[in-house]
Amino acid sequence: MKDKLKNMLGNFFISVALINAAMLVLGLLLRPEQKFGYEVFMYPLIYGVIGTIPALITRDGKELSVKQTLVKNAVQMLMTVVLILAFMFGGHPVDRNLVVTAVSVAISVVIIYAGVVIIGWFLDKKAADQMNEDLTRFKNKQQDIYKPR
Hints:
Blueprint (H helix, E strand, L loop, with lengths): L1 H29 L11 H16 L8 H24 L6 H50 L4
């Protein structure tokens, strides 16, 4: 549980950084004339929390195969897109502008989700490589200690 919480916290901060970048790009492309106050700084945090909800809902009771992991990630990504779109656009009347913005946001969420997964994978790989290196050094040290003379 501690590892899952640590992993989710790391994913939250990666998400918030990528959400800030996406908000900048989408804002400059879709509404460059719009200006914001300080309250806009809370939205990446809110979206980051919303993005972690699917990870809280899905469980990892056992080790998953690559195919199961891909399906789980696809379901979590779809849930994240639906939650973000519902939070941002729920209750608004549908018009052409809203559809363009919603599609842009959905694409951004997919890119951000993929970025979080890829960055997380690289960080996990780096940790695994370090552990393997440490184990190899430990094994070699043990062989040197117990080597017959």
